[in-house]
């Protein structure tokens, strides 16, 4: 098993390929993460997404069109629980620079922002409703993981872990890709994607109050549910990311009633499983 | 010396008429027999016709044999076709079931809890 680990998209990326020599594919995978980050990062002033958010309308690359389209489709599928137009709400909550640059605490002097802006995709043109901007943080890593996994699969069975958003291709010799969800819970998957969303990490403080990055589009503020973390296993990493956020926002009662394979951890430490797990 | 009866018969017109008709018939029959040359040797049959007739008979026999063979092979083909169609339908049904399973597995990814060391850890991203 060849492994490579590097930093990209504000997290640690890990690539694994079951092949004798996959250095070329690993190089290509690493380069692909860098390329996609250059397209989708809201923190890079020269990224394509930054240009879209600044200008309101652009002729975009095929990848940005695809990921924005996936995000819009996810918003419709989840009745707005997943929304890519949370950009201003995330910034208002204080997540206005890369996470490593965020101050631990700062005055809370910002009002809430509205979500649910209109995004029009026509061919390669993307246009945003005035006053709205797009944040692909809720879907970008899963998208990149899927793209890179597709590339790595040319060398052999592979796993791409983009900071917890995981895509796999092929079956390893051990029979399954083993992914730890907790200290005492490990899942084995042979296809699909895994993603975890929660407020146990990527948290900061504003005005002494804890903030996290999972915005509830209905309120424009960090969501308040009884869930601490949700891990979803889905047909691909993009869908897993979307469902993880949607289940997280819904709270434990709604989330545990679904048939989506998921592991729910409540804020009081209970662990619930759904979808036959 | 002729008696009166014989004279009467010889002068009878009806008798004469019968005699004339009989003579004519005998003449015509003799003519036909002579015209038919029954004494002449019969002409030899054309060997090409004989060969042709023989060939025709052989072809008829062979066509019957060929028809039997074709019928037998057609029956075998139809039987094999029926078997193949049944096998193809079985395979198609199997593939359809596999496709449905693949769709189901795509919609519901294969996952289970395992007691193996983890390769990676999923966490809030």
Explain what the structure shows.
The complex is a heterodimer of chains A (277) and B (125). Chain A has six helices and 18 strands. By secondary structure, chain A is α+β, with helices and mostly antiparallel strands. Chain A has a single domain (2-274), classed as T-fold (Roll). The mean pLDDT of chain A is 91. Chain A starts with a strand and ends with a strand. Chain A is globular, with a radius of gyration of 18 Å. In chain A, helix 1 (23-40) runs antiparallel to helix 5 (140-152). Chain B has 125 residues and is mostly helical. Chain B folds into two domains: 1-40; 44-98. The A-B interface holds A 11, 14, 16, 141, 159, 161-166, 174, 176-181, 185-202, 229, 231, 233-235, 241, 261, 275, 277 and B 105-125.
Distance between the termini of chain A: 28 Å
Number of helices of chain A: 6
Mean pLDDT of chain A: 91
Structural shape of chain A: globular
Helix- and strand-based class of chain B? mainly alpha
Strand content of chain B: under 5%
* Largest interface: chains, residues each: A-B, 45 and 21 residues
How many domains make up the coordinates of chain A?
Answer: 1
Helices and strands of chain A, in order, run as EEHHEHHEEEHEEEEEEEEEEHEE
CATH-derived architecture of chain A = Roll
Mean pLDDT of chain B: 82
Number of strands of chain B: 2
In DSSP terms (H or I, runs of 4 or more residues), the helix count of chain B works out at: 3
Distance between the termini of chain B: 163 Å
